[in-house]
């Protein structure tokens, strides 16, 4: 038997349960900022881990800034 795919993620379900009441607009904006900060911090931590793993330096960062590193066909040409 094939498992039924749930349309919402575990995070979405938890947020729905936690915030099943109406928030004033100001509190909703504050919550959005908190969530954005949470995910930004996670992204920074992951980027720092890759940076350390690769042993990159500031010179490497400068080189990457001036190098086309994207794979695939360039749609601008």
What does this structure look like?
The protein has helices at 10-18, 25-54, 58-65. With 77 residues, the chain is an all-alpha fold. It has a domain at 36-65. The radius of gyration is 20 Å and the shape is elongated. The model has no long low-confidence stretch (mean pLDDT 86).
Q: Which features characterize this protein?
A:
mainly alpha; 77 residues
Separation of termini?
Answer: 49 Å
Mean pLDDT: 86
Rg computed from alpha carbons, rounded to a whole number of angstroms: 20 Å
Share of β-strand residues: under 5%
Biggest beta sheet summary: none
Order of helices and strands: HHH
Question: What's the short story on this structure?
Answer:
With 77 residues, this protein is mainly alpha-helical.
What is the secondary structure topology, with strand pairs?
Layout: H1 10-18, H2 25-54, H3 58-65
